[in-house]
Specification:
Blueprint lengths: L14 H17 L4 E5 L1 H11 L8 E6 L7 H17 L2 E4 L2 H9 L20 H11 L6 E5 L8 H9 L9 E5 L5 H11 L3 E5 L4 H7 L2 E4 L8 H9 L3 E4 L4 H5 L5 E3 L4 H13 L1 H17 L3 H14 L6
Length: about 325
């Protein structure tokens, strides 16, 4: 039997709230005899480890999926390192989402059970009518559309993308940059685009990302780090020419030829990669075909379920 409990741990460490989370977890664990507890995220894993501390020998096994890299900033990085040590010492199996995370956690002494399978959900292919409607909405007037999608946060690299877009404003026709998503950097990014005179459409949050992908001539993922981003998987499935940062687990998703991979944080190289695809339809078509082939090789949701089940069965309560 699988039991699911939703416990809000917040988006950042807060000692009082985190202590209450540990208490709630301990009460829950005291009521339910669990063979395996699976926590998603490093903080969730560390709080679960603290809640499990002092339990008897026939203890609940702890599985932790680690989704994010260490944050920037000395203080935040120190907190992250402490959480890593807690998870590494208590978790019976750790599933990082990228090879660099796996190496980092292995150095901490974690028991790595393989890379986590993070699969994008299946979505039906959009109809030609849906794609045409979105193209009209974007108002590109036949201009090439460059699409990016994600949370407007520093990790996603949208400031670098805007710097890159500033370099193609004198092209004829000017490519239309479209960014879907919202987040804390929304006002700053809009101000950056306005100050540079860069034409960009900020769409806000959207539920029709598959249609937006199908309407794009090039998709860009300029992140400074990612694990197994859904937008990369979705772009590969859509068979769109993709330019992405060589960072985190992105290259593991795209393979050698499923995308043009560029250094994160370099607007010059990013702009050159995008405009090169716009100027060379044959290369863009070849990249789109490679993306479709790569997408066919990616694991799906069933593989993610099978992986979790295999880990759980291998970590049943000792002595049972």
């Amino acid at each position: 039997m699988v039991r699911v409990r939703e416990i809000d741990i917040g988006d950042r460490p807060r000692p009082g709230r985190d202590a209450r989370v540990v208490i709630r977890l301990r009460r829950w664990l005291g009521r339910d005899a669990l063979d395996v507890l699976h926590a998603h995220g490093l903080r969730a894993g560390a709080l679960a480890a603290l809640a499990l501390a002092g339990k008897p020998a026939q203890r609940t096994a702890l599985v932790v999926t680690v989704h994010n890299a260490a944050p920037a900033g000395r203080g935040a990085a120190a907190v992250y390192a402490a959480l890593e040590l807690i998870v590494a010492r208590r978790a019976d199996a750790v599933l990082p989402v990228s090879g660099d995370l796996a190496a980092r956690l292995h150095r901490r002494g974690a028991r790595i059970a393989g890379l986590a399978v993070v699969a994008a959900p299946d979505a039906p292919a959009p109809s030609p009518e849906q794609v045409a409607a979105v193209r009209r909405e974007l108002g590109g007037d036949g201009r090439p559309v460059v699409l990016a999608a994600g949370r407007l946060a520093a990790q996603k690299g949208f400031s670098t993308l805007l710097d890159a877009a500033a370099r193609w404003q004198r092209r004829d026709p000017v490519p239309l940059l479209v960014i879907a998503g919202d987040g804390p950097l929304g006002p700053a990014l809009r101000a950056q685009a306005a100050a540079a005179g860069t034409e960009v459409r900020f769409l806000g949050p959207r539920r029709d990302v598959p249609v937006l992908l199908a309407a794009a001539d090039v998709v860009v993922v300029p992140s400074s780090w990612e694990g197994q981003p859904l937008i990369v998987q979705e772009a590969l499935r859509a068979g769109r020419p993709l330019v992405a940062s060589r960072a985190g687990g992105i290259a593991d998703l795209t393979g050698a030829d499923g995308a043009l991979l560029v250094p994160p944080g370099d607007p010059r190289v990013l702009a050159a990669a995008v405009t090169g695809l716009l100027d060379d339809p044959r290369e863009a078509a070849a990249l789109a075909g490679a993306a479709r082939r790569r997408a066919a090789a990616l694991p799906g949701e069933a593989a993610a379920v099978d992986q979790a089940a295999a880990v759980y069965l291998g970590l049943g309560r000792p002595g049972r």
